[in-house]
Structure formats: C-alpha cells, structure tokens
Amino acid sequence: MNRYLELKNLFEEYEDKENAIAISKYRRNLFPFYGIPTPKRKSIYKDLLKEEKKQRKIDWQLLDWCYQDEHREFRYFVYDYLLAIKEFLTYEDIFKMKDYITKKEWWDTIDFFDKVIGEIGLKDNRVDNLMLKWSKDSDFWLRRIAIDHQLGRKKKTNTELLEQIIVNNLESKEFFINKAIGWSLRDYSKTNPNWVRNFIDRYKDKMDKLSIKEASKYLDHNNTYS
User: Fold this and answer.
1) Which of 82, 105, 135, 197 could join 141 in a cystine, given CB atoms 3.0 to 4.6 angstroms apart?
2) Torsion angle, CA of 86/87/93/97, rounded to 10 degrees?
C-alpha cells in the first residue's frame, strides 16, 4: 500500500478545495475531488509512473487500492498508469479493467478506456469480438467504449467492425450513445470522408440527429442531412 499512500499524500498536499467544489459541480456532484488541475496532477505522479514502468508488470493491487478511493483523481491516475504501461497489457487484462469500468461509471472515466482497450485491439484481434459483445450490453457505458475504442486509428480502422457496432446501437435514445456514434464517425471522416458520407446516406433514417450533426462536422457542406 506504500505507493497508494504516497500518492494520497501528494494529492492531499496539492488539494485545491475551491476548485474541487467547481469540478464536482460540473460532474453533477456525483464524486469528490481534490481539485488538482490536470497538468499539475500528472506532474505529481510523473516520476512514480516512470518507476512503475521499469517493473515491466502491472501492479493490480496498487490500482485496486486507487479504485477503492472515493476521490476521482485516483481513477484518472489508474488510466494514466495503464496508458504508461500499455505495451505490457494483454487481452485478459481487459476483464480486470471491466471491473473498474463498471464502478461508479461516468463519461470522465469511461472515455479514458477507449485508447487503452483500442491499443490492445491492435495487437489481439480477439478484442474485435469482445467489442461486438459489449456493443449489445445492457450497460450503455460498455457500449460507448465499444463504439469509440477505434478512435485515432485512422487507416488502421476496421470499418466492418465499426459499422456493425454502430448499427447495433442505432435508434438509441441515450445521449451518451448517440454522441459516441457521432464522435466515432467524425474521427474517421478525417481519414475517409467518403466512407462516412456513405454510412450516413445508408443509415440516416435510423440515426439520431445528434449523431448526424457530430459525424458531419468535417464533411463538405454540399451534403445536408435531416
């Protein structure tokens, strides 16, 4: 527990109570915060992450202790930790991460896992089937990760997978799902605008207006969707 206590002492040292109130309010007062700005928070544990990376293995006990702490900054640390050691993460680790994902879910921690899981997917194609499974899960936060886990892949995007995952979520009334659909398409439109344009043409009758608006942001204005 020494690493966890070390981190907790640092967070408490740099706590900004006034900012913590503002941040918590922005998160609908769902979680307590230390109120440490992101650049400062990351600088606090920069050296700690360097030391952990040298171990070339994942300290799940440390991450468990962090996730048991009620302060949201500990969950942000877990994400930065996983990203720092992403080269050592495997397909099996996703199931451990799922335990974290489904505890006190909100967009601020859910979206962190897009890149971590996406990176594993580039190394292990078993992730494709898992994301298809998640895309139909009753937990819409898992569906959101499935939709957006290919963000930033550009030409490495598996368009067949992307299409099926989105189709599994069309006609959803959930804001966070429709927003995610728009983001995933908008991101890929920077690489292949014609594919995204054709996707919208084929599915616009089932797509939420929010998804279409987000997806169309970088497309030319000669096409309008309503």
Assistant:
1) 105
2) 0
Helix 72-84 crosses helix 60-68 at what angle (to 10 degrees)? 160
Return d(Cα 206, Cα 200) in angstroms, integer: 9
pTM confidence score: 0.91
- CA proximity to 113, closest of 156, 75, 139: 75
* C-alpha of 212 from chain center: 21
Burial 9-30 (b: 16+ CB within 10 A, else e): ebbeebeeeeebeebbeeeeee
pLDDT digits (tens, 9 = 90+) for 41-87: 999 999 999 998 888 889 999 999 999 999 999 999 999 999 999 99
In sequence order, the 6+-apart residues with CB closer than 8 A to the CB of 49 are 80, 81, 84
15 contacts 33 by C-beta, under 8 angstroms: no
The neighbour count for residue 42, using CB atoms within 10 Å, is 14
